[in-house]
Design brief:
Layout lengths: L2 E5 L6 H14 L3 E3 L17 H13 L3 E5 L6 H5 L4 E4 L7 H10 L3 E4 L6 H13 L5 E5 L17 H8 L4 E3 L1 H5 L2 H13 L4 E5 L17 H17 L12
Parallel strand pairs: 1-2, 1-8, 2-3, 3-4, 4-5, 5-6, 6-7, 7-8
Helix pairs in contact: 1-2, 1-9, 4-5, 8-9
Bound molecules: phosphoenolpyruvate and manganese (II) ion.
Phosphoenolpyruvate binds next to loops.
Length: 251
């Protein structure tokens, strides 16, 4: 079964995360994403709701039968975040934060390891190794685009890395076409491409009102667009012998 992780870039309010959780669960996602501790380029940008955000995220996920994946930024916060999450996200900017990798490894909680913005495949796999040698075998790799010379898209999503990683590692791989392109209209085609290439899932940013999002609005799709994406993803999944999670009944 594919992992379909969907939700806002950042948890912003009870109403926002509840609306998204209900919509993505209804459309067939199995994991709710949402950042409570956000790695922002500017220290003046919205930094996330912190623990309050984790509470809102967990409650919304539980109401709709979803698992939770959320980012942890600091090794000292791994225990606290693990108290709310089913999977710890280590973001692109922290892919080689070795203290964080070790702490996440020691937590025993599954880890979603995003590819660094300029990371080679070898560097990425060695970062995963830090979690594995700390005693945590549950690591999923997430291709989220690498920085290129071309500002036409936010990042350059590397679809070829999906079959390449299948040769190099047993670890599951998902693709994130939201950060991978930075453009909402490119999310669907690149999600389809990722699954067609053999990915074990996708991570997609979904917001009830993308223009008002506190972060990553340009790359966020609406719940309606997500539902359409899921229908098309179902067709591609069956073409490559995979299946989507069963949609939960609306709560
Ligand atoms: C995110 O998932 O919102 C995020 C910050 O991702 P990345 O680390 O890939 O930029
Ligand atoms: Mn984001």
């Amino acid at each position: 079964m594919l992992a379909i992780c969907a939700g806002p870039c950042a948890v912003e309010s009870r109403e926002q995360i509840e609306t998204v959780a209900a919509a993505v669960a209804h459309a067939g996602a199995n994991v709710l994403r949402g950042g409570a501790f956000k790695p922002r380029t500017s220290p003046y940008a919205f930094q996330g709701l912190g623990i309050k955000g984790l509470e809102l995220l967990r409650a919304a996920a539980d109401r709709h039968g979803l698992a939770v994946v959320t980012e942890v930024l600091d090794p000292r916060e791994v225990k606290a975040v693990a108290g709310y999450a089913d999977m710890l996200q280590i973001g692109a900017r922290n892919m080689q934060n070795f203290a964080l990798l070790r702490a996440a490894g020691e937590s025993g909680v599954p880890v979603l390891l995003k590819r660094g913005i300029a990371a080679t495949v070898d560097e990425w796999l060695l970062a995963a190794e830090y979690v594995l040698v700390a005693g945590n075998a549950q690591v999923v790799l997430c291709e989220r685009g690498i920085r290129s010379f071309d500002p036409a898209t936010r990042n350059l999503i590397d679809v070829s890395v999906v079959p390449l990683l299948a040769e190099l590692t047993h670890l599951p791989v998902i693709v994130d076409p939201s950060h991978g392109t930075g453009l909402a209209r490119l999310v669907e085609p690149m999600a389809l491409a990722g699954i067609a290439a053999g990915a074990d899932g996708v991570m997609v940013e979904v917001h009830p009102d993308p223009p008002s999002a506190a972060s990553d609005g340009q790359q966020s799709i609406t719940p309606e667009q997500f539902a359409t994406l899921m229908t098309r993803l179902g067709a591609v999944a069956s073409a490559v012998g995979r299946r989507l999670p069963a949609a939960t009944l609306a709560a």
